[in-house]
C-alpha cells in the first residue's frame, strides 16, 4: 500500500487526516478486481488452447467455412484478452497506483499517455472490434438462414447489426467528448 504521506508543495510530506486518508486508500479495494480479471484472462488462454487444439485435430475434416468460424473464434478470444490487458494495466495505472514502467523496454506505447479518457476510447474501439468479429461470424452463419441447421434468424442478424452500430455511435461520442475536454484544458 502507498505511503499516507503526500509531499507538500514545499517538499515536506503532509500527513492526511483520517477521512481523506480512508477515501484515498479506498482505491486499493480495486486490486482484487484486477487480480480477478487476470484469473479470467488465464481462463481465456485455456479456452484459446482448447479451441486451437480442436482446430488442429479436425483440420482435415473441416470445411473452409468451419475453419474460418473457428479462426474467428480464436481472434475473438485474442481480442477479448487484449481488452482485459487494457482494463487491467490501464485501470490499475489510472485508478490504483503507478506501475513504475518508465523506460522499461516492454512498456506498451499507449501506457505513457493513459488517462481515463484515452482508456475509454481504447476500450470502445476494442469492443467494436470484438463486435465486428461476432457480426462477421453471424454473417457467415447467415448462409444457413431458414434451414433446419441454421443457428441465426433474420431478427438476430438485424439486432446484432443495430447493436454494433450503437457501439460505433457510442465510440464516436466518447471520442468527441474526450476531444472536446482536451481542447478546453
From TrEMBL:
Pfam families: UPF0114. It is found in: Cell membrane. GO terms for cellular component: plasma membrane. InterPro entries: UPF0114, UPF0114_bac. It comes from the Bacteria. Belongs to the UPF0114 family. This is UPF0114 protein FPZ54_19590. HAMAP family: UPF0114 (MF_00143). The chain crosses the membrane at residues 31-49, 69-92, 157-177. It comes from Sphingomonas suaedae. It is a multi-pass membrane protein. Keywords: Cell membrane, Membrane, Transmembrane, Transmembrane helix.
Amino acid at each position: 500500500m502507498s505511503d499516507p504521506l503526500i509531499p507538500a508543495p514545499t517538499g515536506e510530506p503532509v500527513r492526511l487526516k483520517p477521512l481523506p486518508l480512508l477515501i484515498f486508500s479506498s482505491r486499493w479495494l480495486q486490486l482484487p478486481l484486477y487480480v480477478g480479471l487476470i484469473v479470467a484472462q488465464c481462463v481465456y488462454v485455456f479456452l484459446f488452447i482448447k479451441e486451437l487444439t480442436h482446430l488442429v485435430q479436425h483440420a482435415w475434416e473441416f470445411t473452409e467455412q468451419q475453419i474460418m468460424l473457428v479462426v474467428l473464434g480464436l481472434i475473438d478470444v485474442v481480442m477479448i484478452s487484449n481488452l482485459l490487458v487494457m482494463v487491467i494495466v490501464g485501470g490499475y495505472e489510472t485508478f490504483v497506483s503507478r506501475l513504475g514502467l518508465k523506460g522499461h523496454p516492454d512498456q506498451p506505447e499507449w501506457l505513457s499517455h493513459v488517462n481515463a479518457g484515452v482508456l475509454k476510447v481504447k476500450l470502445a474501439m476494442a469492443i467494436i472490434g470484438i463486435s465486428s468479429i461476432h457480426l462477421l461470424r453471424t454473417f457467415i452463419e447467415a448462409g444457413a438462414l431458414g434451414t433446419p441447421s441454421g443457428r441465426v434468424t433474420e431478427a438476430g442478424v438485424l439486432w446484432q447489426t443495430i447493436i454494433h452500430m450503437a457501439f460505433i455511435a457510442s465510440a464516436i461520442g466518447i471520442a468527441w467528448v474526450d476531444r472536446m475536454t482536451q481542447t478546453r484544458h
